[in-house]
Every structure is written in C-alpha cells, then in structure tokens.
Design brief:
L-arginine/glycine Amidinotransferase, Chain A, transferase, alpha/beta, single chain, Inosamine-phosphate amidinotransferase 1, 3-stranded mixed beta sheet, globular
Length: 377
C-alpha cells in the first residue's frame, strides 16, 4: 500500500465506506470460565465449566459466510483487510493471572475503533480476550506505515486482577428479580468494578463530535471517563438502556444517518438520551421485531436483536442479514437500499455484520450533529 492510496479516516458509521476489516472464524473457542463471562451450552457438548474449540464444520460454515461478505464488499469497490488468527486454544496469562483459553478474531469491532485519523485498541475486560489485539497488529502496522497522518493508540492494558470483578457476580445476579437486575444496570453495578478503566470498542456509537458509550457488562464508568479524557474535543456521553444483559451498543441504539437512529424498543433508552436526539431533529425509529427469536446456530451467545447489527456502506445503503426481511422492508420505506447477506452461521463466533467489521476509512469530515444541548448531555 502506498501513502497516496491509504487513509485512516472515519468519524461516524454512515459516511461512504472505502476501507474495512472483516474478521475470520478460524480457531474460535468456547471460552474457559472466568470472572466476567461463563458459557453454558449443555445441549451442544459444552456444559457450564467446559471449554474448547468450536467444531470444524461450524467454523467452515462461518468462514464461508465471512469470505462471501468480504467478496461482496470488494465487489463494490471497498478495500478489505483480514486479521491473522493465532492459536486461541493456548493458555495465556500475565504475572497476575493465568487463563485456560483465548476466544477468536471474528469480531474486530469489539477491539478496534477509528475516530478521525486515530486507530484505537480498546482495553477489553475478558481475560480470554486480553491478547486478541495480536491478530490485528499486522494490519495496524501496515496502515500506520502507509498513512503518514494516521495515529495508532492503545488504551492502557488492564491488569484484570480479581479486584476488577465483582466476585461471584453471575451466581448472585442470575437469582435476582427483574427490577433488582434493572436497578443494578442503571447503577452500572454489574460484572466489573471501577478498579481500572475497562471498555470494549463495540460499546461506542460514533456521531461526529458526539461519542455515546454504553455502560455494560464489559464497559465501566472509569472506561467511559478514560475515553472522555482521551478525546477532549468530543462530547463523550455514558448511556444505559433497560436491558438486563447490556453488551455492545450496536444491537440496541444504531445511528443510521444524520437525523435517523434505529432503536431496539425491547431495551428502552434513557429519556434524556431520546430527548437529546429529538431536540436535535433526529427521528428515533423503533425497529420491528427480529425475523426469528431463536438462532438455530449452536453455541450462540447472541440475541435475536443481531437483526439491527447492520453495516452501512453509505447514508442510503445497508448490509443486513438475509433473513431479516421485515426490517429490510421497514428501512426500504425510509429510502435505503438493503443488501441481504447470509450471516447466521457466523453469529456464534462473535455477532453480526457490524460486529464482524472495523471501518478504517469512510469519506467525510468531522461534523456536529447535535448543536443543541439537553439535560446532562
């Protein structure tokens, strides 16, 4: 790649896409249990406490869809990068902890975010994902060398000692009544403590000068505060939704283009967040129900609301999972070209079309889409 042909630039999720990464399913693991996450798939050979590589036939099916998605994007003139998988089955650790497995590299969106000309690696909050950045480093190095204006940053690598987690969280939380769970969500009293900054990149929705950071099972207030200090020229807003298992904002609150945000109505937004969008002349559109409430894929930890986990190619073009026909019809009525993409087999490896990508370059400049203040925003 030559400096003239490569540019790191992306301020939002809807400007024309020119350069993107698409993940790979190779070697993905059902993670070994750890303080922040536990997998339990007894019907599929991985009961609570068990871990291991996802079966080869599932991996092959997922890679077929990922490769097909990459080819579709290339066919539309978009440059595509791919990560380099490592041995995710190996035991990993630091001087302060060891863990029996890693995870995978299908969802680069979780680890990486572009803000302007900066490529930022998130902290991550699972021990199984601490070293995942290694899969992306060859591409980051190449981009850094090719674009003399690109910035490459990594948030402080967390210690992830036991002090970073609420001990026995899942044992306690799963027994709570609904209202107590929702109260803990509102207080962000979940799996993580505030011992150190922690965030996943997929908990950030970019809208020019405004960055909306969901407080979740993998993102704490300290992480949102680190982002506020790191991006002093932006308005960084910690937000939450009525969702007992908040994990990544891109299946809940999805800005589609200036003036239109798609909302998963099963997870109501804070009234102040909704009003902030509305006073700035944005329409908050409630998404129709997902086409299927049951992922037929085995070993899937994903919600049916992956339906809204779409990749925008520009303000009028969206890639959507091929079975989400009702949502495609809903958005077609808003003038979008909807591109159906088969992607159900990829879900157990880390999510949907947005999860599986990281946008490196979108045409466009920094804009202020929210000139009017409201409440704490």
């Amino acid at each position: 790649m030559s400096p003239r042909s490569v540019k790191v630039n992306s301020w939002n999720g809807w400007d024309p896409l020119r350069h993107v990464m698409v993940g790979r399913a190779d070697g993905t693991m059902v993670q070994a249990p750890e303080p922040a996450v536990r997998r339990d798939f007894p019907d599929d050979g991985f009961p609570l406490g068990a871990y291991g590589r996802i079966p080869d036939e599932m991996t092959a099916a997922a890679n077929e869809q990922l490769d097909g998605f990459a080819a579709l994007l290339e066919g539309r003139g978009i440059r595509v990068e791919r990560p380099e998988p490592i041995d995710f089955s190996q035991r990993v650790g630091t001087p302060e902890w060891t863990h029996n497995s890693m995870f995978g590299c299908m969802p680069p969106r979780d680890v990486l975010i572009t803000v302007g000309n900066e490529m930022l690696e998130a902290t991550m909050s699972y021990r199984s994902r601490w070293f995942e950045y290694l899969c992306y480093r060859p591409v980051l190095q190449k981009l850094f060398e090719a674009d003399p204006d690109a910035r490459w940053e990594a948030a402080p690598k967390p210690r992830l000692t036991d002090a970073s987690y609420n001990t026995g969280f899942w044992d306690t939380y799963n027994q709570l009544p609904l209202e107590e769970k929702l109260d803990r969500v509102r207080r962000n009293d979940l799996a993580l403590t505030e011992a150190e900054p922690l965030f996943d990149a997929a908990d950030i929705a970019r809208c020019g000068k405004d960055l909306f950071v969901q407080l979740s099972l993998v993102t704490n207030r300290s992480g949102a505060d680190w982002l506020r200090r790191h991006f002093p020229d932006h308005r960084v807003h910690p937000v939450s939704f009525t969702n007992t298992h908040p994990l990544h904002i891109d299946a809940t609150w999805v800005p589609l283009r200036p003036g239109l945000v798609l909302h998963n109505g099963e997870r109501p937004a804070e009234p102040e967040l909704t009003e902030y969008f509305k006073v700035n002349d944005w329409e908050v559109l409630e998404a129709v129900q997902p086409e299927s409430w049951h992922h037929e894929a085995r070993l899937s930890f994903c919600s049916p609301w992956l339906s809204v986990n779409m990749l925008s190619l520009d303000e009028n073009t969206l890639c959507i999972e091929e079975r989400e026909v009702r949502l495609a019809d809903q958005l077609t009525a808003y003038g979008f070209e909807m591109i159906p993409v088969p992607f159900r087999a990829a879900a157990p490896f880390g999510g949907g079309l947005h999860c599986a990508t990281w946008d490196i370059e979108r045409e466009g400049t920094l804009q202020d889409y929210f000139p009017r203040r409201h409440g704490r925003f």
